[in-house]
């Protein structure tokens, strides 16, 4: 791959996948959160053109089937597997991993894309606040349980990857509130704060996973950019976005905040994080506009002490420890 290759704000996922088609070939990839009109779907669509296997996940069988059918209309040869997964439920996560383990193939890339953003305060069946559970604790457990599959993909010339889709919103507030994580309190719950904490946790987890695996797994996090997706049409999220000025009173994107990305542009950075070979010596990196942008990470989201504490606290919450 030429080191002269450059990506910009307007680079699309299709362009990145084409550039790295040789890296994608032969790979088994799992992407969480792949409903149509989201960046997870677009990521799956462009990768499916070259990958050996793409596993798409979601909690709705109907929506998963629609995603698969839509991809196969364009890419008839795509090898797509559907997987029901509710990241707010430890039981659902374990059941999904059991199904994955029936396939003897290794897993080369895990993309933690799914999120439950700006939801009202509720507790999951495991006693966690739903947004932090779905966006951080669930993906942490899912990644932990899939670690053997990922490690099996490692070779002397290939290191498996885990990608966490974070957000510029990680910089809001002061980072992860460990009390909110371990002792959720509806009286203290603020949607935007929980969102920011979850996105901060994504970055910290990528940093610590890369560190603890000691070269066996490379993890990355990223900011896809400002994109008008199905999240912005979620009834729970619309009032929050309007209050923040992200959406106009009519619900449309606020152009005064700068150029909004299209979904293909927004998914580009995910594809780069998953396959750009130039990242091999940059484990734990944070990407923006498909390139490394560690300088854009807020201090509380890059602090090694925070990363270590979050890892230890989350292992206690799931009742399991990672093994590499």
Automatic annotation (TrEMBL):
Domain of life: Eukaryota
UniProt keyword GTP-binding present: no
GO molecular function: oxidoreductase activity
Keyword Lipid biosynthesis in annotation: no
Alphabetic keyword roster: Oxidoreductase
InterPro entries per the UniProt record, alphabetical: NAD(P)-bd_dom_sf, SDR_fam
Coiled coil (residue ranges): none
Family: Belongs to the short-chain dehydrogenases/reductases (SDR) family.
Protein name per Swiss-Prot or TrEMBL: Short-chain dehydrogenase/reductase family protein
Source species of the chain: Mycena venus
